[in-house]
């Protein structure tokens, strides 16, 4: 806890200003000392710093900044409640899948689609469930059979969603594949669905894709991005050879890598590695796919 002098120094305003904000906008400290002195918590100070930055960066008044803070806190509160509700769906769906209960799994997903738009279902159900399935398999908490069953279920549902998503022909064309020997492609499907919901045409080649025939495909379809999932394939030389051979022939194509194994590769000008966070995908899409927007 911090007294008003220290709090004002951290926020970058005077104690008089803090008192005025308290009177006018209800920005009260969390508590007071036994002697009645204001005591600010870390959360109190973080909120005040957020307000000060908004005022400085956007040139707005304190009253407007307080309105924005209120909107932000309300949104975060709603998102927290919704996240808890989604978790109430994720847990039984995961349990149904690892129990090989196909009817129950379909019922849960159908119920989710009756409540939420498909983007919400993707972002808050399919995507976190895919991450959970992969993590539980990697930790040895579920069997290969359970992982395959859950993955195939999600893949089939994703295929159905992609069939109804419109394509914006002016956007870049993408190829999605796993290199030869790589059979885990659930993460690749999640990324493909992310691209498809953003209007991109994605040619999904799936797992265990050999190099043969890709040159012709890239040329004929004028491919601009190649997305690859590398999870279990070992051998940096084989991976790099696969990518380098294609990149040397198609220098304008950007190669995007994901998957646990991809995270371990050394940095290279031949490709860009993305983690599994939606925020990372959205940032990449904004900067590399739609830089002029």
UniProtKB/TrEMBL annotation:
Pfam families: B12-binding, B12-binding_2, MerR_1. GO terms for molecular function: cobalamin binding; DNA binding; DNA-binding transcription factor activity; metal ion binding. Keywords: DNA-binding, Transcription, Transcription regulation. Residues 1-71 form the HTH merR-type domain. Residues 171-293 form the B12-binding domain. SUPFAM superfamilies: Cobalamin (vitamin B12)-binding domain, Putative DNA-binding domain. InterPro entries: Cbl-bd_cap, Cobalamin-bd, Cobalamin-bd_sf, DNA-bd_dom_put_sf, MerR-type_HTH_dom, MerR_fam, Meth_synthase_dom. This is MerR family transcriptional regulator. It comes from Bacillus solimangrovi.
């Amino acid at each position: 806890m911090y007294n008003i002098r220290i709090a004002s120094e951290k926020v970058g305003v005077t104690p008089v200003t803090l008192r005025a904000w308290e009177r006018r906008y209800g920005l009260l400290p969390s508590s007071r000392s036994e002697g009645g002195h204001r005591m600010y918590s870390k959360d109190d100070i973080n909120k005040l710093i957020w307000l000060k930055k908004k005022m400085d960066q956007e040139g707005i008044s304190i009253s407007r900044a307080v309105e924005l803070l209120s909107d932000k806190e309300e949104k975060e509160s709603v998102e927290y409640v919704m996240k808890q509700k989604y978790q109430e769906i994720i847990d039984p769906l995961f349990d149904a899948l690892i129990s090989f209960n196909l009817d129950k799994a379909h019922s849960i997903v159908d119920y989710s689609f009756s409540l939420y738009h498909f983007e919400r279902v993707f972002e808050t159900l399919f995507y976190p469930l895919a991450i959970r399935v992969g993590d539980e398999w990697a930790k040895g908490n579920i069997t290969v059979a359970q992982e395959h069953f859950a993955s195939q279920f999600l893949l089939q549902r994703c295929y159905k969603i992609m069939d109804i998503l419109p394509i914006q022909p002016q956007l870049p064309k993408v190829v999605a594949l796993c290199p030869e020997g790589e059979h885990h492609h659930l993460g690749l499907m999640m990324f493909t669905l992310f691209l498809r919901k953003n209007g991109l045409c994605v040619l999904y080649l799936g797992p265990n894709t050999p190099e043969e025939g890709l040159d012709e495909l890239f040329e004929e379809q004028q491919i601009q991005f190649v997305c690859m999932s590398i999870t279990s394939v070992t051998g940096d030389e084989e991976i790099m050879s696969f990518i380098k051979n294609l990149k040397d022939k198609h220098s304008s194509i950007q190669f995007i890598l994901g998957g646990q194994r991809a995270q371990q590769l050394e940095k290279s000008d031949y490709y860009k590695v993305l983690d599994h966070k939606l925020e990372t995908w959205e940032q990449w899409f904004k900067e590399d796919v739609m830089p002029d927007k």
